[in-house]
Amino acid sequence: MKRQKDLSVNILGIETTCDETSLALVQDGTKIIHEVTMSQVAKHAPYGGVVPELGAREHVKNIEQLGGKFFEDIKGNTISAIAVASKVGLPPAVQVGESYAHALAQALQVPLIPINHVVAHVCGIWVDDSFIVKPTFPFLGLIVSGGHTQLIDFSSPTEFDILGETLDDAIGEAFDKVASVLGLPYPGGPEIERVSEKGDSHAVTLPIPLEHDDSMNFSFAGLKTAVRTYVEKELPKQHETYKEFFVADVAASFQRVAFTHIAQKAEKALKQTGYKQLVVGGGVASSQRLTDILFSYFEEKEIKVELFVPNRKYCTDNASVIAGYASNLLEQE
Predict the structure, then answer these.
(1) Which of 306, 323, 315 minimizes the C-alpha distance to 140?
(2) Residue 80: how many other CB atoms lie within 10 Å
(3) Among 6, 74, 176, 244, which residue's beta carbon has the most beta carbons within 10 A?
(4) Which CATH number fits domain 10-131+315-331: 3.40.50.300, 3.40.640.10, 3.30.420.40, 3.40.190.10?
(5) Where is the Gcp-like domain (predicted)?
(6) Which residues are annotated as a binding site for substrate?
(7) 139-309 adopts what CATH topology?
(8) Local structure of 35: helix, strand or coil
């Protein structure tokens, strides 16, 4: 299906890959007509992470609950195609969205477009109406989430190459594990950012992973282990009165080192590609500290790059970016 001149295309996006159930109708890849998202974080928090089977059951319940009102709210709008986050994600959760999308596409007699939600994260900028200026292809994409950490060379929406990725833990996973070591609740990223505000980010000396490695790959397992070893050794020595400050210092130090690692690898990718635009997406991109460190790092290194980081709601899994990316794909047909 190719967009005709002067004819708008409304794509219905569906996202159920992890712990957010989301539906969105997006016009021409940038204008959100309506969107709804329901999070399962509170359901999974007692387990310290997402439980796939529980997640799938919650998606079934949530999508039925959201769907009725959603379609009532978009009544009168045409639906040109259905785009669903597919294949990549937690299989039981992904299958819920795929089944729902397949049934809708059949009922509405419209095309069904499967979307890799990891790649679609870069579309957060396109659907975020607070950004008047949008990136132009080609550009460097940086995906930082609970399941993925990747640097991607985007020549176009359909042509991209992964330049580097994590060799072990994804950055979001590392944050969750370090938070657990520090006695902080799930999800770890927001908790570490919160307690870090009271900490000294240089209080604990931690190794920056792969600092002298020429590749654009990431690694967080060694950093995570270094934090655990330090905490197990030093925490018992802390007086109860000062444990809160100890945790804040460790969290702040870990966060600084993890994000500096991201910045160093992004620098290598920018130099290799020659690109002047870096588009960031994924749940960890919602951290203001990451944005601050990227800005300050590039400024210190005198790297001229336009940094695009969407507002928090478009960093995490959501159906708007699924629909937005699908619209970009249709433009290429």
Answers:
(1) 306
(2) 22
(3) 176
(4) 3.30.420.40
(5) 31-323
(6) 143-147, 176, 189, 193
(7) Nucleotidyltransferase; domain 5 (3.30.420)
(8) strand
